[in-house]
C-alpha cells in the first residue's frame, strides 16, 4: 500500500515507518500536526506529541518526501475512548490534514502511526481513517516494549529525549540524552517503578535525529535550552528541550538542495463527514410481497440475554440471491429488535451464515449498511462467518443469529481496525471480542498472519496454530487466556479437508490444552470459510472481572413420563461433553451418532434406522430424546430454562428432511416436553436454532446424525 506516515518526530512514529517498509508498503508522504504558536513546545494533549516540533520540517529533506503540516486549532472536546466526530475537537485537525494529503495524492490508501499501547490514540486514528476510506497501520501495537526499545536501537534509530516526566528521570541529567545511552537506566526504572520503557505512560518523549530512512541527511542540534515545569516537585520534575538552532549533515553526496521536496501548510476545514449508516432501501426485501415470507426464530433465553435467528422460509421459490436475502434478513432482525425496544447497540455477537463464500465481499457490503459504529456506540458486535448449504435446505442466501443484551452499557468491546503485528485487524463494524457479564465472546479467528493479513503457509495445522496465537493475543487484552479459561471451543473446518487433515487438526488442538482444563469441543464441517481458510476457531471464555464465589448447586432429577419412555435418558458417556464453571456457566455438547440414533429408535419400534434419509418418524423420536436430554442436563446441573443462552441443533444435509420439517419436528418435541411436565413453561417462540451443516460432532470425524450445542449462564 501507499502510505502517508503520521510523524511526531518521536522514535515510535519513525520505527513504525520502518516496519511499514519491512512489510512491503511504500511511504509516499509525511504528515505532522504542530501547535498554533511556534514558541509553544508541548500541548496539553493526550493525542499529539509536539515537543521538538520546530525540527520536523527537516524530515522532508532528510527523507526526500513531501511533508504536510497543519496547526492544531481544536482542543479535547470528546473525552471518551470511543471517538465520535466532534466539531472543534483536535482530532478534526488530523482529519483535515489527511483529507488534504488524500486530495493531493489520490493513490494514498493507508496511514502509519506509532501507537503502542494507547487505545485513546489508536481509536482516533482509526476513526479518521474510516471516514476517509484509509487503512490504519499500527505495526508497533501491543508489542513488548523492552523488545521494541532494543530493536529500535539495534536498527539504527538515533533519538534524544526532548521531554522527561517520571520518577527517576532528572531533567538536568537525562534531557537531551541519546536513547541508547539511557537504555540500561530505563530498564532499571522499569524493574523498580514499573515505568514503560518506551515512554507509553508519558514518562519521556524523544526526537529522532537519524535513522535508516533518513537517506539524504541527519539532524544535528547545535543549541537548546531546557525548560522546567514544577522544578520543586518531590516526585518528578518535568523538563522539555527547546531547540534554539540546528543544522543538517548531508549523508548522500549526490543529493542536491535543488531537489528539496515540497512542504505543504494545510489550512481551512473540509466538510466533516461521518461514516454512512444509510440502509440500501432499493434492495430491501418486502416480506409481504408475493409468496415470499420471512420465518423468524426468536427465543427469550434468560433475564438478560436473548437470541434471534432469522432466515427466508421456502426460499427455493422466492430467493433473490445472497445480497437481497441477507438485506431482507437483517432488516427483519432490525424490525424485531425495535419491536422489543432494542437496536443494533444491544447486539453482542452475530453469527453470519451465507450460501456462497465467493460473494463474501457482497455480503459485507450489505452487512455494513445495517451494523455501523454510529448505531453501536457501546462498541460493534463480534462476528463469525461461514458458508453453509443454505440454498440446498431452502433457507435462502443468508441466515443470521444475533445474541442480544438488555444492558448494552455493560458490555466491553475490543475493536482494533489497525493492521498490526498483534492480531488480525477487523476493518469494519465487527470486533475481535465482546465481554458481557463474565463471558468473553470471541470473533471467529482464522490462521492469518497479522501484519500481512494473509493465511499462513503450512496447511490446516499451521493455520490452527496461528489462529490459536491470534485468539490468545485477543484474550490477553481481557487479562485471560484461551488455554486456561475457555469452556466452549468451536472449530469450523472447511469441507476441503481430507480425513487425515481433520484428525491432525483435532490432535493439534487437544495437545494445546491441559487435560484438566479441557473445554467442551464442537467441530462443524462448513462448505467454505473466509479467505479459503482450512479452519476457523471460536472460543467462548469465562472472563469475569470479579471473582465469583462458588454456589452450592441446587440440582434435581428429571422425573417425567418422558423418562419412562427412554429409561433414564442415558446415552454413552463418550457421546457428550459437559463443562460446569462454578455453578455459574454450563456448556454441553451432545453427539447423537448414527449408532446412538439407532439405539434410541430401537426402543420405540423395530424399523431399521436409516442414517442417510432419517424418516420423519425416526426424527421425531430422536428430537424428543434430544430435547428431554437437554432438560435433564439443565436440571441435574442446577440450571433452568431461564438460564439458557444458546441452544443449537446441527444436522447434516445428508438427511433428506427439509428445514421446515426439521423445524416442525423439534418444535413438537418441545411442546411434548411441556405437556408431559407441567413445571416446564415455554413461551410462544422456540428456544432453539436449527443449523444445516455438511457435518458436525464432538470429534473431527464430524459424522453425527444430530449435534446439540448448549450454553447456559447465571451471571
UniProtKB/TrEMBL annotation:
Annotated Gene3D superfamilies: HUPs (3.40.50.620), putative n-type atp pyrophosphatase, domain 2 (3.90.1490.10), RutC-like (3.30.1330.40)
Name recorded for this polypeptide: Diphthine--ammonia ligase
Domain of life per record: Eukaryota
Xref: CDD domains: AANH_PF0828-like, eu_AANH_C_2
Family membership noted in the UniProt record: Belongs to the Diphthine--ammonia ligase family.
GO biological process: protein histidyl modification to diphthamide
InterPro entries membership: Diphthami_syn_dom, DPH6/MJ0570, Rossmann-like_a/b/a_fold, RutC-like_sf, YjgF/YER057c/UK114
EC number: 6.3.1.14
Domain Diphthamide synthase residues, every copy: 1-225
Keywords (A to Z) from UniProt: ATP-binding, Ligase, Nucleotide-binding
Pathway in which this enzyme or protein is active: Protein modification; peptidyl-diphthamide biosynthesis
A Pfam match: Ribonuc_L-PSP
Example GO molecular function: diphthine-ammonia ligase activity
Reaction it catalyzes: diphthine-[translation elongation factor 2] + NH4(+) + ATP = diphthamide-[translation elongation factor 2] + AMP + diphosphate + H(+)
Amino acid at each position: 500500500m501507499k502510505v502517508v506516515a503520521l510523524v511526531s518526530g518521536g522514535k515510535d512514529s519513525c520505527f513504525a515507518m520502518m516496519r511499514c517498509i519491512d512489510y512491503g508498503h511504500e511511504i509516499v508522504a509525511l504528515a505532522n500536526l504542530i501547535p498554533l504558536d511556534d514558541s509553544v513546545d508541548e500541548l496539553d494533549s493526550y493525542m499529539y506529541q509536539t515537543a521538538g516540533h520546530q525540527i520536523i520540517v527537516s524530515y522532508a529533506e532528510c527523507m526526500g518526501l513531501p511533508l504536510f503540516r497543519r496547526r492544531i486549532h481544536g482542543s479535547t472536546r470528546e473525552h471518551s475512548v470511543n471517538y465520535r466526530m466532534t466539531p472543534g475537537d483536535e482530532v478534526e485537525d488530523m482529519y483535515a490534514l489527511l483529507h488534504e494529503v488524500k486530495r493531493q495524492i489520490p493513490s494514498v490508501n493507508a496511514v502509519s502511526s506509532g501507537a503502542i499501547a494507547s487505545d485513546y490514540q489508536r481509536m482516533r486514528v482509526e476513526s479518521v481513517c474510516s471516514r476517509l476510506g484509509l487503512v490504519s497501520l499500527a505495526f508497533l501495537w501491543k508489542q513488548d516494549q523492552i523488545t521494541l526499545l532494543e530493536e529500535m536501537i539495534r536498527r539504527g534509530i538515533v533519538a534524544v529525549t526532548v521531554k522527561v516526566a517520571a520518577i527517576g528521570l532528572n531533567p538536568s541529567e537525562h534531557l537531551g540524552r541519546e536513547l541508547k545511552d539511557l537504555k540500561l537506566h530505563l530498564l532499571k526504572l522499569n524493574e523498580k517503578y514499573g515505568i514503560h520503557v518506551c515512554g507509553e505512560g508519558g514518562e519521556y518523549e524523544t526526537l529522532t535525529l537519524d535513522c535508516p530512512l533518513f537517506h539524504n541527511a541527519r539532524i544535528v542540534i547545535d543549541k537548546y535550552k531546557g525548560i522546567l515545569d514544577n522544578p520543586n516537585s518531590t516526585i518528578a520534575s518535568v523538563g522539555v528541550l527547546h531547540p534554539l538552532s540546528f543544522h543538517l549533515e548531508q549523508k548522500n553526496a549526490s543529493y542536491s538542495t535543488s531537489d528539496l521536496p515540497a512542504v505543504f501548510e494545510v489550512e481551512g476545514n473540509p466538510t466533516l463527514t461521518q461514516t454512512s449508516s444509510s440502509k440500501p432501501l432499493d434492495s430491501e426485501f418486502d416480506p409481504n410481497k408475493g409468496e415470499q415470507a420471512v420465518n423468524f426464530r426468536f427465543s427469550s433465553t434468560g433475564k438478560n440475554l436473548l437470541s434471534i435467528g432469522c432466515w427466508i422460509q421456502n426460499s427455493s421459490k422466492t430467493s433473490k440471491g445472497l445480497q437481497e436475502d441477507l438485506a431482507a434478513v437483517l432488516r427483519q432482525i432490525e424490525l424485531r429488535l425495535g419491536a422489543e425496544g432494542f437496536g443494533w447497540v444491544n447486539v453482542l455477537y452475530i453469527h453470519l451464515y451465507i450460501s456462497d463464500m465467493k460473494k463474501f465481499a457482497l455480503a459485507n457490503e450489505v452487512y455494513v449498511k445495517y451494523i455501523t459504529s454510529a448505531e453501536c456506540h457501546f462498541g460493534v458486535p463480534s462476528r463469525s462467518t461461514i458458508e453453509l448449504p443454505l440454498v440446498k435446505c431452502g433457507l435462502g442466501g443468508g441466515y443470521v443469529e444475533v445474541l442480544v443484551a438488555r444492558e448494552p452499557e455493560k458490555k466491553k468491546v475490543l475493536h482494533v481496525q489497525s493492521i498490526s503485528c498483534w492480531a488480525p485487524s477487523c476493518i469494519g463494524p465487527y470486533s475481535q471480542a465482546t465481554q458481557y457479564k463474565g463471558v468473553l465472546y470471541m470473533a471467529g479467528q482464522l490462521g492469518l498472519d497479522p501484519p500481512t493479513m494473509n493465511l499462513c503457509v503450512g496447511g490446516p495445522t499451521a493455520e490452527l496454530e496461528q489462529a490459536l496465537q491470534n485468539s490468545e493475543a485477543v484474550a490477553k487484552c481481557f487479562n485471560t487466556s484461551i488455554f486456561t479459561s475457555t469452556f466452549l471451543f468451536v472449530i469450523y473446518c472447511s469441507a476441503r479437508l481430507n480425513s487425515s487433515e481433520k484428525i491432525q487438526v483435532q490432535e493439534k488442538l487437544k495437545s494445546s490444552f491441559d487435560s484438566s482444563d479441557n473445554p467442551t469441543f464442537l467441530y462443524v464441517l462448513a462448505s467454505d470459510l473466509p479467505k479459503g481458510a482450512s479452519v476457523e476457531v471460536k472460543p467462548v471464555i469465562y472472563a469475569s472481572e470479579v471473582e465469583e464465589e462458588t454456589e452450592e448447586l441446587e440440582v434435581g432429577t428429571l422425573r417425567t413420563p418422558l423418562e419412562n419412555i427412554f429409561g433414564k435418558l442415558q446415552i454413552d458417556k463418550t457421546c457428550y461433553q459437559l463443562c460446569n464453571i462454578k455453578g455459574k456457566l454450563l456448556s454441553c455438547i451432545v453427539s447423537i451418532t448414527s449408532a446412538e440414533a439407532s439405539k434410541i429408535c430401537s426402543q420405540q419400534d423395530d424399523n431399521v434406522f436409516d442414517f442417510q434419509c432419517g424418516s420423519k418418524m425416526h426424527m421425531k423420536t430422536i428430537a424428543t430424546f434430544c430435547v428431554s436430554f437437554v432438560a435433564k442436563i439443565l436440571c441435574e446441573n442446577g440450571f433452568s430454562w431461564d438460564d439458557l443462552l444458546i441452544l443449537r441443533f446441527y444436522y447434516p444435509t445428508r438427511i433428506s428432511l427439509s428445514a421446515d420439517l426439521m423445524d416442525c419436528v423439534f418444535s413438537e418435541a418441545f411442546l411434548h416436553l411441556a405437556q408431559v411436565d407441567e413445571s416446564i413453561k415455554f413461551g410462544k417462540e422456540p428456544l432453539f436454532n436449527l443449523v444445516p451443516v455438511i457435518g458436525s460432532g464432538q470429534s473431527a470425524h464430524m459424522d453425527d446424525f444430530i449435534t446439540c450445542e448448549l450454553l447456559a449462564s447465571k451471571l
